[in-house]
Amino acid sequence: TRMGGVDKGLQPLNGRPLIAHVLARLSHQVGPLLINANRHIDHYAALGYAVVADGDADFKGPLAGLLAGLQASRTDWLLGVPCDTPCLPLDLAMRLAAAATDDIDVVFPVSDGRAQPTFSLLRPRLQHDLAAHLNNGGRKLEAWLRTQAHIAMPFDEPGDTQAFFNANSLADLRHLEPTNAG
User: Fold this and answer.
1) 8 A C-beta contact, residue 38 and residue 6
2) pLDDT at residue 159, as a whole number
3) Residue 172 burial class via C-beta count within 10 angstroms: exposed 0-12, middle 13-18, buried 19 and up
4) CA 179/CA 83 separation, integer angstroms
């Protein structure tokens, strides 16, 4: 709604859809990529990756998209990231995975004292617990993550200042565009 009802991931940034920037930064970090989308699925599929929709027709927010990803995942871990973060760290997956241990199910970064729960590395086995949480009316991602065996990993390295910047408005996107001199 902050972008006037347009599909955020498809908004242009430097001549490409916002999600294309995110995919480019992730493609060398992880194995198979999944895109969660509930509209304009053909546009997202044209990017060359599998697209999964929320399993419930009632839009339940980011947790529903995360659940769809966990259900579709065929790997030991799923890295969830939002489509509106074109500057996400090029080593995000490696750093989160390095913090994971056998007894941990979730790792998410904390940057500048703020948890960044939408950038979570999760075990797909959490899908049943997440489905129950959603069915019981839960909608807060960080609250649910903190009920799991988790690590909130400090992520304040030089160069990380815009790592978790998310474009919530068209003005935010314009802020990321290079300025035209003369």
Assistant:
1) no
2) 59
3) middle
4) 23
- Residue 17 CB partners (closer than 8 Å, separation 6+): 9, 10, 11, 43, 47
Interatomic CA distance for residues 118 and 120, integer angstroms: 6
Inter-axis angle of helices 127-135 and 62-72, nearest 10: 150
| Both tokens assigned to 44 | 């997202």
Q: Which residue has the higher pLDDT, 110 or 1?
A: 110
Mean per-residue pLDDT, 65-89 = 95
Query: Residue 67 and residue 120: Cα distance in Å, rounded?
Result: 12
**Assessment of whether the complete model's pTM goes beyond 0.85:** yes
- 124-133, 147-156, 162-171: which range is least confident on average? 162-171
Cα–Cα nearest to 4, from 175, 172, 163 = 172
- Tokens 């314009």 sit on residue: 174
Q: How many CA atoms lie within 13 A of 118 on its CB side?
A: 15
